[in-house]
Amino acid sequence: MTPEGPILEHDPNPDENGKSEPPAQPEQVISTTISAPQLPPSHANRQINCKHEKSWWDKWKPFVELGGVILLAVYTGYTIKIYTANHDAAKAAHDTLGQIQQQTALMQQQVEGAMAAIITKQFRITWPRQAYLSVILDNRGRSIGSDIHADFRLARVSLRDQKVIGDALPNWEFSISEMGPSLDLPVERGIYLIVSEEELRGHPMPRAIKLTGTFTYVNGFRKKSESVCYYVLGAAEFRNKLGAVQQTQGPSVITCDGLPAQVAAYLQTQKDIGAR
């Protein structure tokens, strides 16, 4: 039987003591080659790369700039379009509002013209015992007139030069709370004056009482204010060539606008009578 155990390899070259040396280990070869560091790309290589990139940008730059200009133009046009649309819408709304206001004002004027109170004035002067200057008021509208107020100033004047003559006359002022629409129920207000009928008589033009002031009332819709200017004329005497009174006119009341025509009529009448 063969004994079990490790089998020793026999060294064919034992040493002097009869001992065999262990087998020599293989020598490790250490490479003495030193790797050189990697150098950066040369200037020529960089110039080639830059030229390549620059060449790409130069090709696409005009298209990019053109695209930017087109985008800016589109944005500007869109902005202008939005502004124009908003401006047109605002103008249309303003025009519509103006038309509505005009139509409303027109309707209000039509309603007011058909339904408002219309108070007329008719002045006259009489001498029952002394001069009595009065005004007859009529409401010719369809609404009640209210807050009626008159504030008149009186003065005796010469028609030739409009100068104030004689003593001062009192102011005339009155108020009426309201007047219903009726032609059958006029309202009269008046004032007595210390003026004789002879004082206003003249040849060929009479003397006059000038009446000015304001007349206000509410016509059912709004307050109305009217300027008042009248001449209350005395009797005018016209005489023939012999000096005898042949014709008399007056007394009468005319508006200030009608005075020039009335004065011309006085002069023409006297001229006609004198020529007979």
CATH architecture of the largest domain: Sandwich
Strand fraction: 25-35%
Low-confidence stretches: 1-11, 29-33
Tell how many strands the DSSP assignment holds. 10
Give the radius of gyration: 61 Å
Q: Multimeric state of these chains?
A: single chain
- For the record, give the distance between the C-alpha atoms at the N and C termini, rounded to a whole number: 201 Å
Give the SSE string.
HEEEEEHEEEEEH
Please tell me about this protein's structure.
34% of the residues lie in helices and 31% in strands. It has 2 domains: 64 residues; 157 residues, Immunoglobulin-like. The strands form 3 sheets. A 5-stranded antiparallel sheet has the order 4-3-6-7-10, with no helix packed on it. A 3-stranded antiparallel sheet has the order 1-2-5, with no helix packed on it. Strands 8-9 form a two-stranded antiparallel sheet. The chain is elongated, with a radius of gyration of 61 Å. With 276 residues, the protein is an alpha+beta fold. The chain has 3 helices and 10 strands, in the order αβββββαβββββα.
In summary, what is this structure?
This protein folds into two domains: 52-115; 119-275, Sandwich (Immunoglobulin-like), CATH 2.60.40. It has helices at residues 43-115, 197-200, 259-275, and strands spanning 119-126, 131-139, 145-157, 172-179, 182-193, 208-218, 223-233, 236-239, 245-249, 252-255.
